[in-house]
């Protein structure tokens, strides 16, 4: 259960967000669910003060790396994003009601090391769950193919419409000071 304490104050920093589904809903790692979430990310990718820069879709949860200028921008951006995800998934599944188990979990990333760890965690999350076992390419249900910071993999040279380019120093450059992101897990 996610704490309902007041969220930490921050200014123009990257964050790692996690949204968990309620029990009993379909797996998000299917083509239709994936396409639905990508459409939502594209519509919500860049709002004033809020940007989606990376993602990873798991069976019952979604990880995002986002940037927000202020706490208010995060609240507005996430409210719109969560509402859009819930509405679109409910429409896809021909159902009504809650989609997310609780409010989203967030972690403000304040240092190069925290950003590096969050990127590794998001890109390797499917491996942690035992559902993506290949070491030669990124998880297809993540934005790893579009990540330009792999040490041992070259993805595409273009940014898909569902992602916004990172603007904060930590997410553009700073994390590289803490070490590499390797496709090979470990």
Offer a concise description of the structure.
By secondary structure, the chain is α+β, with helices and mostly antiparallel strands. 31% of the residues lie in helices and 18% in strands.
What does this structure look like?
The chain is α+β, with helices and mostly antiparallel strands and 186 residues long. The protein has a single domain, classed as 2-Layer Sandwich (Alpha-Beta Plaits), CATH 3.30.70.1290. The chain contains five helices and five strands. It has a five-stranded antiparallel β-sheet with strand order 2-3-4-1-5, with helices on both faces. The model has no long low-confidence stretch (mean pLDDT 92).
Rounded mean pLDDT score: 92
CATH topology: Alpha-Beta Plaits
**Which CATH architecture would you pick?**
2-Layer Sandwich
| Number of DSSP helical runs | 5
Strand content: 15-25%
Shape, per Cα inertia axes: globular
Class by SSE composition: alpha+beta
Q: Percent helix among the residues? A: 25-40%
Q: How many strands appear in the DSSP assignment?
A: 5
Arrangement of strands in the largest sheet: 2-3-4-1-5
Radius of gyration: 16 Å
CATH class: Alpha Beta
CATH superfamily: Transposase IS200-like
Number of self-contained structural domains: 1
């Amino acid at each position: 259960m996610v704490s309902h304490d007041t969220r930490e104050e921050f200014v123009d920093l990257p964050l790692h967000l996690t949204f968990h589904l309620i029990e009993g809903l379909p797996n998000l790692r299917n083509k239709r669910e994936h396409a639905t979430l990508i459409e939502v990310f594209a519509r919500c990718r860049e709002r004033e003060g809020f940007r989606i820069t990376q993602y990873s879709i798991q069976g019952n949860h979604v990880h995002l790396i986002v940037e927000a200028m202020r706490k208010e921008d995060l609240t507005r951006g996430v409210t719109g994003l969560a509402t859009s995800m819930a509405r679109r998934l409910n429409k896809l599944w021909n159902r009504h009601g809650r989609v997310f188990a609780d409010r989203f979990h967030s972690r403000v990333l304040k240092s190069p090391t925290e950003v590096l760890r969050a990127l590794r965690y998001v890109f390797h999350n499917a491996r942690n769950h035992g559902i993506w076992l290949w070491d030669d390419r990124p998880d297809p249900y993540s934005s790893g193919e579009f990540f330009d910071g792999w040490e041992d993999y070259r993805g595409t040279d273009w940014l898909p419409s569902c992602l916004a380019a990172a603007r904060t120093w930590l997410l553009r450059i700073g994390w590289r000071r803490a070490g590499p992101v390797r496709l090979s897990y470990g």
